[in-house]
Amino acid sequence: MKNFYEEGRDMLTKKGCIPFNLNIITRTYIAKDFDLESSDVESYTKYLEFEIYEHQLRSKYKEEQDVTSSYGNEKVNNIVQTYFLQIIRLLENAYLKYRVAKLNFAQISLLLYFIFTFSPINVFCQNDFINSKITALQIGDTIPNTLWQLPIKVINHPNGRDTIKLSDYRDKGILLNFISSGCKGCIEALPELERIISFYDDDIVLIPVTMEKHDRMSSFFNQNEYTKNSKLTVITDDRILKELFIHRYISHVVWIDKEGIVHSFSNTAHIQDFTIADFLAGNTKSWPVKHEFTSFYESPIVSRTYKTEHLPNNEFKQLKYIAFTGYLDGVGAYYATSLDTLEGVERISIRNVSLLDLGLISTGLGLFKRGSVLKQDSSSWKVLNSGKYAFELYTGKNLTRDQWYQLHAVSYERTIPLGTSNADKYKLMIEDIKTFLGIDVIVKGDGLFFYEF
Q: Which residues form the Thioredoxin domain (predicted)?
């Protein structure tokens, strides 16, 4: 705690922050009541120190002409208002039951220091908490100069360096691969990705990126069986890149060309020899893009418009429909049901799945049977091309997994009366597949069979 206090104080002094007094008495409390233990004090103060330092780091490397985040003052003030007022309430409660909490004076002093120094209303730091904005970069955007020059913490650098700048690789294409040590698939994919990239050392670099701390990731990387022999330089302690390239799920790959232009967002499975060749040639416009924050990500395929839903005579009336379509860009791939008790319907929604998965869901076998069905002899299916039913059955070499789904995935949605039994639900779904897709799905024992007609 002593080092943390001194480092925080020194940082503020160097940054030119001018503290003013905060009148706690007149402040309106908005935080909930909490019980304060010593661990709470440390966690809250460390969190606040980190958030403020992060914002100052962003401000330090921004250029006035660059608009790189919607973070800025609004974000910092929201953090400060929410968490500082919680700390004030924690402190107030601690005073009321000081002996019970066993809170030592040094910790209270530390809390007071942060409260009086970082009041959202009464803090002014020269050239820092003013006009700082960072917005997420999209496909077609160019990396701002400040990002090229931003010092970034790394591990496993070939020259033993602890920091790099993206400008160190400005003569190459850059693939930023957002991962986590807790993501098994992310880590297991790295050796193969490194092998593929090794053939393009002069033209492209793969850089894994994680929010995890430098020391922790260094220890993990040196001990894990998939990474202990890796030569990849890994960015750690990341807080900036994740804001510039927002995503919900990892791994998440950002493709940046030699000119600093963002070309695509993808999964790691999209990194293949032929996609790298396309990328280096600038042929990425037709690629499937990993979208996770569209306004319609979890919306129904079919819905009334907002205006028609709110006309008095349309409210609470059942919307009955059956819909099939191909791959939908920008929607979530999931199987979900939605119950509407007012309209008396259940909406079944299946997005961007293979025909095999659609068959497993619609027959009630479930996706847990996927592996056993894939082990079947698919030649017994009466279909023209089993490679259209699952990526694992595709024998070609010119499509990545994402590209295969873009070409062959289906989306299906329908409403059924609320309370319909599962058996009747599956009958309806199988009948829909037969009617609209011309495919019959039959269960024999634990096996699943497809017949086209």
A: 137-285
What is d(CA 453, CA 451) in angstroms, rounded to the nearest whole number? 7
- Is residue 300 assigned to a domain? no
Take residue 277 and report the two structure tokens written for it: 């060749």
Q: Which residues contact 223 (CB under 8 A, 6 or more apart)?
A: none
Distance of CA 315 to the CA centre of its chain: 36
Residues 6+ apart with CB under 8 A from 265: 139, 245, 247, 252, 253, 254, 255, 289, 290, 291
Domain with 67, as residue range(s), is 2-125
Q: Are 90 and 219 part of one and the same domain?
A: no
Residue 449 and residue 439 in contact, taking contact as beta carbons nearer than 8 Å:
no
Q: If we measure between CA atoms, which residue out of 327, 321, 301 comes closest to residue 414?
A: 321
In 3D, which of 204, 205, 232 has the Cα closest to residue 218?
232
Count of alpha carbons within 13 angstroms of residue 300, beta-carbon side:
20
Which ranges of 230-311 would DSSP assign to H, the alpha helix? 241-244, 273-281, 306-309
- Tell me: do 319 and 386 sit in the same domain: yes
pTM for the predicted model, two decimal places: 0.62
pLDDT single digits (tens) 290-304: 887 776 777 788 776
The answer for residues whose C-beta is within 8 angstroms of residue 328's C-beta and 6 or more apart is 301, 351, 352, 411
Q: In whole angstroms, what is the distance from residue 450 CA to residue 332 CA?
A: 26
Q: What is the 3-state secondary structure (H, E, C) of 417-433?
A: ECCCCHHHHHHHHHHHH
Q: What are the residues whose beta carbons fall under 8 Å from the beta carbon of 116, sequence distance 6 or more? A: 19, 21, 22
Distance CA 288, CA 406 (A): 6
